[in-house]
Amino acid sequence: MAKTLELHFINSVGKTAKLTVDYPKEPVDKIAVKQVMDLIIAANIFGSETQSFVSVKEARIVEHNVTDYEIV
Fold first, then answer.
1. The pLDDT value given to residue 56
2. Cα–Cα distance, 53 to 43 (Å, whole number)
3. Number of Cβ atoms within 10 Å of the Cβ of 54
4. 69-72 long-range CB contacts below 8 Å, 24 or more apart?
5. Are the C-beta atoms of 53 and 10 separated by less than 8 Å?
6. What is the pLDDT of residue 47?
7. 50 three-class SS
8. What is the pLDDT of residues 9-38, one digit of tens each?
9. How does the average pLDDT of the chain come out, rounded?
10. How far, in Å, are 50, 56, 72 from residue 36 at the CA level?
11. What are phi and psi of 8, to 5 degrees?
């Protein structure tokens, strides 16, 4: 079962933008995640001049289950 940490931000045009982190360390430290998201916003390294991240929306862990079937 693969897990992903999704970081959701609001950008300067009011839309949601998402960054994902594969195989996050668990248990997730909510305070550390918030601090990192604030640093990402402050660094302004994602998006463009007109669509930068302006606020934190949410963070969540997503689990993916995959079942392969052999097709004969």
1. 98
2. 10
3. 15
4. none
5. yes
6. 74
7. coil
8. 999 999 999 999 999 999 999 999 999 999
9. 93
10. 22, 10, 48
11. -105, 130
